[in-house]
Amino acid sequence: MRIELIKGDKKQEVEERTRIVATAGQISHSDKELFDLYDSRFDYEDNLKAIGRIVGSGHTSITEHDQLTFFITDVTPIIEQILIGQRLAAFTIKSRRYVDFGDSGFYVPDFGYLDKGYEVCKKYKEHMNSLFNTYSEMVEIGVPKEDARFILPYCFHSQIAMSLNTRSLIKLIEYCTMGSMSDIDEVREFGLKLLDIAKEKVPYYKKNYDSIEKQISDGVKNYNKLDFLDKYNDGKNELLESPRLISSQTDYNGKDIDKTIIVSYIMNRYQLDFKKANVFYEKLNDNDKKQIMDVICMANENRELEHVSFKFEFPTTLAGLTHWTRQRIHSLLIPDFLPVYDLNNYIVPDTIMDKCLDKYQKAVNENIRMYNELKEMGVSEKDLVYFILSGTMINVSTNVNGRELMWISRLRCCNRAQWEIREAANEMVELVQNESPLYGKYLGAPCAVVGKCPEGKHSCGHPYTYKRR
Q1: 270: helix, strand or coil
Q2: What's the whole-model pTM score?
Q3: Radius of gyration of the chain, Cα coordinates, nearest whole angstrom
């Protein structure tokens, strides 16, 4: 695992970043003009003390003015998933759709807590190497990398560029060292390494670091597993077959999505209250409503669409989950990796079905067998988590407003999108279109909705067509 602060790590940069935060912290209580205030904050030690007092009193928002960029290598998708889930941060990740991961390397847990730790470690390495060999063999015979990756175990190494502000960094450190995933050694190690970097490169948070270190030392966990709820679970959890629209939130008892959007526009444009805007709406003919919806949906600032929301539940592979999580604007709920997902729930892509089903099936079955063998040998769940395959499937749910759904559909209904997420996105769009004849027409791939493709030379060159697999 390698983590380096790429931007803002030099002594002069640290002092300048501190100066900016200290200036921001003084704005609301200073009579000075902003630039004069900035010019006066030249004393580094004084700036540290000033920020410490402000942050210590709970006003941590000033630290959002301090942006940090990290380069991260040799971490697994488990770390990757945690990072992408930090929705206030920015990430760029090496793509498994286009890059060959056959030689990426993989994480090996410390099995020292077992009497036969050496034997377990040997079995683990041999097995993981066999999965990577299967991946390479499938790529060699023509299986696309985006499908071959479904056999990759969740111990493979990833590379990430991450930018976030200091406030978000502290939240991330707390989560990795004391949150629900901190029982996984790699996650805790990642959090501690970030903490070491922060102590040196973001010195104005000293009191907070001391508090975090004390809590870690005391074994504090900032979560409650609510294990008592387990007795109510009958164990009959089933994988969903396709996306479902659980509910649509509008201003009306019925599911009048179009009316909610248009009434919101009328209220804003004419400053009418809700009741009068509804009277206004009743005067409109069908063509009027169509024109209003066209203006709203084709505008850059179509905030009226945020006044409707949709709750979906859907199945996805972990490979597909990466794409869903990257759409950080929606409220995605993802189950923790612990307890380990059901390895019997997995997907078989069409290209593998056609070219090497036996090879893929054999590797999946061997992975399940080895998982059970090592579990019997005493390997803990925190280490068995690395047997999860990228093709393993789980159920997730999300809440998305109309503006967010439109944005997601423009990206994920495109023919260039990964096929799994494209199919799910198209089915979600179809579910909403069944309830919304006006707004629903503006959901989907850009070529179908706007009439042009934004992909340039990467365009698929084919008009939009959706065929359910």
Answers
A1: helix
A2: 0.87
A3: 26
Rounded to an integer, what distance in angstroms lies between the CA atom of residue 420 and that of residue 314?
Answer: 12
168 and 290 fall within a common domain: no
Does residue 223 sit within a domain? no
Q: What is the pLDDT along the chain (469 residues), one digit of tens a residue?
A: 999 999 778 888 899 999 999 999 988 888 889 999 999 998 999 999 999 888 888 888 999 999 999 999 999 999 988 888 776 778 888 888 888 898 889 999 999 999 989 999 999 999 999 999 999 999 999 999 999 999 999 999 999 999 999 999 999 999 999 988 899 999 999 999 999 999 999 988 888 888 889 989 888 887 777 788 888 887 777 889 999 999 888 887 667 999 999 999 999 999 999 999 999 999 999 999 999 999 999 988 889 999 999 999 999 999 988 888 877 678 888 888 888 889 999 999 999 999 999 999 999 999 999 999 999 999 999 999 999 999 999 999 999 999 999 999 988 888 888 899 999 999 999 999 999 999 999 999 888 888 778 777 777 777 655 554 4
Name 62's Cβ contacts closer than 8 Å, sequence gap at least 6: 21, 24, 25, 51, 54, 55
Count of structural domains, the chain: 2
- 186 and 59 co-located in one domain: yes
Residue 49 sits in a domain whose CATH number is 3.30.1360
Question: The domain containing residue 280 runs over which residues?
Answer: 251-306
Per-residue burial over 403-432, b = 16 or more CB atoms within 10 Å of its CB, e = otherwise: bbbbbbbbbbbbbebbbbbbbbbbbbbbbb
Q: Same domain for 61 and 165?
A: yes
Which neighbouring-strand residues pair with 161?
Answer: 71, 92
Residue 356's CB: how many other CB atoms inside 10 A?
Answer: 19
Do residues 164 and 302 both lie within one domain?
no
